[in-house]
């Protein structure tokens, strides 16, 4: 039995698209996992529920934010220090990668990726011109079943300063251009669609959640929360097939699930 329901869903599939090679479809999940702890029941792990959700949704790639690795904070929840990405990789059977943004609580704090197909990984450190917490992007170069290579990045932008977020968006975009592969990037970006940061994203980048109505928050209340979690894709290389925000109670954010097709 499914343990979630879709609060927003639209589908742009046509009979012609369905007939194409399914290996060309790419399913992306982005989720702020609240450092492996259920925010509504402090001290309780949320990893089993998140792993079950990932296995049921079966995305090709997952970007995770607020990820701890071997911190004393995880020890309070799990009884011992835990690498959350490694745990989720073992539970789901995906390839896992942790990109440390900063030292925290005797361990690390940053971004996590789970990738179904073979991939190579690297960490991009992002600038903080106004100061504040260090930030990073986790990058994967992924070989799809068809043999096509694509780039995927997951990040969690500064929660304090607009200037930092604008700089960080620019740096992710520049790296994507340098990679010269079909690129998708996703994460908790800590800005809304009416912000200057959002307007600073130019060129072929498209927000997968821009078209659906009514407005669907990804953080806070489903009635009056904020949309701050995104999947961005290069519209010259991908077409958008579906976008869904999932109402599940494992974090203070809602996971976003997007399906794209290579052009």
Automatic annotation (TrEMBL):
Gene Ontology CC: one annotated term: membrane
Record key words, sorted: Endonuclease, Exonuclease, Hydrolase, Nuclease, Signal
GO biological process: GPI anchor biosynthetic process
Record Gene3D superfamilies: Endonuclease/exonuclease/phosphatase
Molecular functions per Gene Ontology: endonuclease activity; exonuclease activity
Superkingdom of this protein's organism: Bacteria
Annotated Pfam families: Exo_endo_phos (PF03372)
Residue ranges of domain Endonuclease/exonuclease/phosphatase in the record: 29-253
Secretion signal span: 1-19
InterPro entries: Endo/exonu/phosph_ase_sf (IPR036691), Endo/exonuclease/phosphatase (IPR005135), GPI-anchor_lipid_remodeler (IPR051916)
Protein name per its UniProtKB record: Metal-dependent hydrolase, endonuclease/exonuclease/phosphatase family
